[in-house]
Write a structure and sequence with these properties.
five-stranded mixed beta sheet; alpha/beta; 2 domains; 60s Ribosomal Protein L30, Chain: A; elongated; Alpha/beta knot; seven-stranded parallel beta sheet; 32% helix; single chain; 11 helices
Amino acid sequence: MPRIELDDLADPRAADLLRDYTDLKDVQLRSRREPAEGLFLAEGVEVIRRALAAGHRPRSFLLSPPRADDLADVLPPDATVLVAAPEAFTTLTGVDLHRGAIASMHRPAPRGVDELLTDLLSDDAHRPRRLLVVEDLVDGTNLGAVFRSAAAFGVDAVVISPRCGDPLYRRSVRVSMGTVLHVPWARADVWPGDLDVLRRNGFTVAALALSDDAVDLGEFTAPDRLALLLGTEGAGLSHRALAAADVVVRIPMDPRVDSLNVAAAGAVALWATRPAG
């Protein structure tokens, strides 16, 4: 494989490739650049392994010498591997969170809700039973945690609203432990209108909210096909999303605590509504 040993970050052989890894602290810049340039970043040995196992195509790898050895068994033979001393990572990226392993990957083509459901329902070997739907969740840490819970509890796919954050932003990918790279997901085009697409395909939309008419989660009998709807940090679900749901459910808790973090609430609700068997 093409392997470039970098003694100097100004090495002209790597100038174009290294641009993918710069300015990682600038969230707004990265949020504009990465989708526009068709890339996302995978950080850490295990996340990189999961990205490759899920079929994501690498643009290049930036690795310290020990991490290059750790990943040698999975690096594609035609991949470009940039090898640099650990201290060069902080100089280049501005952060020290990737422990000497970071990869620039080709971003997959976006999917709409119709396409996602067509793919799910055309799989004769697996009958989809649960979806997770997220409205306007913008914090990368929470979004990554929600995807990790979705993977842990066997959710078939995640649907995010148009104003949701980017599931492939590096913090989301890292917090999800790479699970966002193999859980199918789609961004809704029409909100909350695309909830009707779920309903037309047999899913009951259950909103998790603190409404007066909400059913306690312990008393809720999950239907065969369930789409669990979560709201944004702080404000929760919008009135329009609640009105578009078929039923509202809540997690009973100590009255001195009015709510849980959205990722924690999602995990509890997914466990409580897991399919039998």
